[in-house]
User: Which sequence fits this backbone?
């Protein structure tokens, strides 16, 4: 309760006091009206007039004083409560011991709610008990309704105090979340600037190294590897950011998963610029099939042989292709392997895709080999 | 002679590109280190081609592309990006850039790219082709928006699969020129697509109320 409140909490409190200022005027008008109505029941009419004048004056002072956060001190709140208590206690002297309605009547809730807003539930409870005690202490006889009113005072003070505290906490939490989000965005921005600088230098080293030849070329190659790796990482991170607002956890962003294949030397991965969400099992099978094709290229064509992976996302299906420019699969080899009872790589790839309800076709010739997988896409309800 | 303007905030890189271009006999008419300089020098320098880094101090490369394309629709913008971040590159192409290259491309690749865009032909990487395809395959497309023809899609797919124009021409039994025209037309449609989106956005927000 004594920790320094956040700016958001203070803003909430200020709004509460602004609302309370309106309420104070309303209950003041009500109290003054009631006193005029009961003007014949006063033993000391002059004293009663002074009491009402004091009530009007204090309402003005309180509205002015509570407007700025700096003036909402303990002293102000205590005085506010004391004024209300004093007017309650004076009722017996001004009206006579057999009074029914107090002079301030409902006007006292101004002080009560001020305590709730500023000191939260505990403050509301305290003020409620003090006001209830003051109200009941000087009554000659206790009616059921007097007790009921007193009970309501304590209850209302406490509950409103609790609600004020919740509002302030929520405002503080939201402020913290907003600040965290702003900080994260700033970190990403800085990260980009830093990465960009590093990438520039790596690209330059790679370029100049290639031109100079010799040892410099080796350095350039190393720089090139790092450059590709960093670029891949940045793009994978982007895909994560894009996909984070997508459907639930049981789906996987195929765009980001495929980007990992670029780590393999010679492999180029082309995808849409947005996240492609697929059920996790489907996505993993597709990536595994693509990886098997890429491994096959490395095995049969060469470790540095280029390969191109392309993902196309249609509303109802995804198409994934892997292409190389190797010598192609010799005619009859796939059939021979199958008739010899060996499943082979291509058999296992076909099996994987068939299990997903899709088709796998392979085109091969002197131009190279191209695998194409078409897999139906379940309706996930939201596509970017 | 091709008039080139080089925009990059990295002095080392800017000098290297400028030197390479000058040695190859191109006319580097202006250089700029940020978007503000680029836009200030662009009208007087009257370049044919702008070699533009996307990550430059404000206004960024995408905004610069949009502005120069507005001032001179014939300008060719070749985007050089160190990170090759998908969304940035795609935004630049939608804004009017006709070529994209990662910065690690070799001197020869850069020169070839500058000459290609200067001749009015797009420079595509397979990665960019994949993204452009993706834009046309998204769900919920308005039937009034430009769509790719079957042939255009076929050509673009092949670019995305890493085939060179020469190989595509061979496979589809087309001339090299026709293949280039198809690729160029996909870019134009993408930029049009972008304009349709912008217009619809403006209408939805009531921005078209006055003029």
Assistant:
């Amino acid at each position: 309760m004594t920790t320094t409140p956040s700016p958001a909490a203070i803003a909430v409190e200020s709004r509460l006091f602004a609302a309370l200022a309106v309420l104070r005027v309303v209950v003041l008008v009500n109290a003054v009206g009631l006193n005029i109505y009961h003007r014949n029941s006063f033993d000391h009419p002059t004293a009663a007039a002074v009491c009402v004048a004091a009530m009007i004056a204090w309402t003005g002072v309180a509205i002015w004083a509570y407007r700025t956060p700096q003036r909402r001190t303990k002293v102000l709140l205590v005085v506010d409560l004391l004024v209300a208590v004093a007017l309650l206690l004076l009722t017996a002297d001004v009206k006579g011991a057999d009074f029914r309605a107090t002079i301030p009547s409902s006007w006292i809730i101004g002080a009560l709610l001020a305590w709730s807003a500023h000191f939260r539930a505990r403050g509301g409870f305290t003020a409620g008990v003090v006001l209830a005690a003051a109200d009941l202490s000087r009554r000659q006889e206790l009616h059921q309704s007097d007790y009921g009113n007193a009970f309501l005072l304590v209850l209302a003070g406490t509950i409103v105090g609790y609600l004020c505290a919740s509002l302030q906490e929520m405002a503080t939490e939201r402020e913290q979340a907003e600040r965290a989000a702003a900080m994260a965005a700033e970190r990403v921005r800085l990260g980009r600037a830093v990465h960009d600088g590093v990438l520039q230098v790596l690209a330059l080293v790679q370029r100049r190294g290639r031109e100079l030849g010799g040892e410099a070329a080796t350095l350039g190659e190393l720089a090139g590897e790092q450059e590709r790796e960093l670029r891949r990482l940045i793009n994978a991170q982007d895909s994560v950011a894009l996909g984070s607002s997508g459907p639930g956890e049981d789906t996987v962003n195929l765009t980001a998963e495929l980007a990992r294949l670029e780590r393999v030397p010679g492999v180029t991965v082309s995808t849409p610029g947005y996240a492609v969400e697929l059920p996790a099992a489907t996505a993993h099978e597709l990536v595994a099939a693509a990886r098997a094709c890429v491994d096959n290229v490395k095995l049969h064509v060469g470790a540095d042989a280029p390969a191109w992976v392309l993902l196309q996302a249609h509303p109802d299906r995804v198409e994934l292709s892997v292409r190389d420019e190797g010598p192609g699969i010799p005619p009859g080899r796939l059939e021979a392997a199958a008739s010899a009872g060996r499943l082979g790589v291509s058999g296992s790839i076909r099996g994987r895709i068939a299990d997903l309800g899709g088709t796998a076709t392979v085109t091969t010739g002197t131009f190279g080999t191209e695998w194409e997988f078409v897999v139906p896409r379940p309706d996930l309800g939201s596509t970017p | 002679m091709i008039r080139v303007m080089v925009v990059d905030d990295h002095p080392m890189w800017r000098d290297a590109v400028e030197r390479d271009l000058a040695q190859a006999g191109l006319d580097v008419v202006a250089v700029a280190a940020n978007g503000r300089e680029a836009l200030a020098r662009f009208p007087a320098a009257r370049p044919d081609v702008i070699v533009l880094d996307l990550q430059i101090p404000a206004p960024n490369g995408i905004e610069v592309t949009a502005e120069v394309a507005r001032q001179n629709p014939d300008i060719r913008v070749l985007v050089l990006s160190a990170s090759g971040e998908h969304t940035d590159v795609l935004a630049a192409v939608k804004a009017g850039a006709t070529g994209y290259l990662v910065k690690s491309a070799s001197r020869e690749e850069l020169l070839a790219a500058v000459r290609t865009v200067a001749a009015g032909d797009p420079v595509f990487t397979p990665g960019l082709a994949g993204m452009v395809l993706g834009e046309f395959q998204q769900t919920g497309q308005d039937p009034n928006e430009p769509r790719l023809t079957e042939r255009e899609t076929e050509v673009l797919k092949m670019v995305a699969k890493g085939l060179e124009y020469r190989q595509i021409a061979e496979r589809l039994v087309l001339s090299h020129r026709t293949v280039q025209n198809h690729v160029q037309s996909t870019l134009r449609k993408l930029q049009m697509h972008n304009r349709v989106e912008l217009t619809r956005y403006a209408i939805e927000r009531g921005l078209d109320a006055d003029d």
Summary: Residues 242-247 of chain A have pLDDT under 50 and may be disordered. The radius of gyration of chain A is 39 Å. DSSP finds ten helices and seven strands in chain A.
